[in-house]
Amino acid sequence: MIQKGFIMQLKLNENIKKFRKSMNLTQENLAEAFGVTVGAVSKWESGSNVPDILTLMQLADFFNISVDVLLGYSMSSKNITDISDRLDALLHEDKYDEAIDEAEKALVRYPGNFKILTSCASTYHVVSSVKDSKAYRNKAIELYESALRYVSQSDKPDQEIFNIRFLIATLNGRENPEKSLEEFKKINYRGIADISIANILRMTGKPDEAMETYTKVLVSILVKVLQFATEMYMVLISMDNTKSCKEACELMDWYMTIIDATSTDNSKNSYLSKMKIMGLIFKSLSFSCLKDYDNMKICIDKAYKIAKEFDKKPSNDFAGKIKFWHGSDDYHISLYDDFGVGAVAGIDNLFNTGPKVLPAKVIKKMEKAQEYWGIIKR
After folding, report:
1. pTM
2. Which residues touch 19 (CB under 8 Å, ≥6 apart)?
3. At what angle are helices 367-376 and 343-353 packed, to 10 degrees?
4. CA 343, CA 308: separation in Å to the nearest integer?
5. What are the domain boundaries of the chain?
6. d(Cα 152, Cα 58) in Å, to the nearest integer?
7. CB of 215 closer than 8 Å to CB of 331
8. If you classify domain 6-75 with CATH, what class do you get?
9. In angstroms, rounded to a whole number, what is the distance separating the alpha carbons of residues 194 and 198?
């Protein structure tokens, strides 16, 4: 009798073919590995014949999966989701011992299910932090590593692999910081693990390296703030109504507040100067849409003043020009973009190319700003 909660879906032939291809093996390669004929493998994959039980076990071990997965038995997704939700609920209710008991039961029932393994690993991870338990941390690592063997069950295996490796590196940070650091560096795509790396450097008595890494994080945050503010601004201004235009102005005020708060000296040229100019020009375009031409002119005048000073001694560097800078003497970051080498030319670019991605009726409302810019820069 099939246990309630299971749906039997025998897909042995399809799975043999799928897992063989996932290992980049031909039928000839698999046949050679198992000492059978190519014809035998072909019959397995066509469904006209099935391997004996011993070969099934060997195939599962070869593909690094369970026999259940190879056969195509799948648990009811509702039942699996119910268990995962139950574990989450117990953790939110601070019933940690009960959550561990439920996790153990789930692992006995479904030892080869990816969602159960990750849910149980997460449960041990949370409880290990609450109880400061080395044993639970190790159990969480063990379960996460087991989950990696079944990641093909996930709809997003690449994302899951990254997430799990990140969590394993985090868990190793307490007892094995050097190993944790090594693991974080392997998955540090575009600086995504920099904060964790800096924390490990601090824990291992390397404050200077930690602070330099935090400096990289700060620069990354500033760049992301620029990307976020400009992209969200485009959406707001495209809505073409008074409320969204006012919100676009507030967004630029927030953005420029961060720039001003980060700069050590607004009179020194740096990439922050360009960032401030962009904020002022975008804000002026919002005022143009609102027909607030006085404030529009004030923003453009300020941007022009900063741009002329910048062009006297251009610098895209951040070194020593932002607060909380702890880069080493030979550590410099220079940023380059479509704004232009010169700041005045950059304002031209913003007026000439920036609005083109907006609706025609919005561009029409921005013409006053462009006209004023044409007058003052002569």
Report:
1. 0.72
2. 63, 65, 70, 152
3. 150
4. 7
5. 6-75, 155-205, 219-376
6. 19
7. yes
8. mainly alpha
9. 6
pLDDT tens-digit readout, 132-169: 999 999 999 999 999 998 898 888 999 999 999 999 99
Is the distance from CB of 200 to CB of 181 less than 8 angstroms?
yes
The tokens describing 92, both together, are 């939110």
Q: Binning pLDDT at 50, 70 and 90, where does residue 6 land?
A: very low
Residue 365: which residues within 8 A CB-CB, separation 6 or more? 240, 288, 289, 291
Which residue is it, tokens 């390669």? 29
**pLDDT tens, residue by residue, 189-234:** 989 999 999 999 999 999 999 999 999 999 899 989 999 999 999 9
One DSSP character per residue, 201-263 reads HHHTT-HHHHHHHHHHHHHHHHHHHHHHHHHHHHHHHHT-SHHHHHHHHHHHHHHHHHHHHHB
CB 142 within 8 A of CB 172: no
The length of the chain in residues reads 378
CA-based angle 62:111:10, to the nearest 5?
65
Which ranges of the chain would DSSP assign to H, the alpha helix?
12-22, 27-34, 38-46, 53-63, 67-71, 77-92, 96-109, 114-131, 134-149, 157-175, 177-186, 194-203, 207-238, 242-262, 271-289, 293-312, 343-353, 360-365, 367-376
What string of H, E and C letters represents the secondary structure of 225-236?
A: HHHHHHHHHHHH
Task: Take residue 61 and report the two structure tokens written for it.
Answer: 């071990």
What's the sign of the alpha-carbon dihedral 242, 244, 245, 250?
Answer: positive
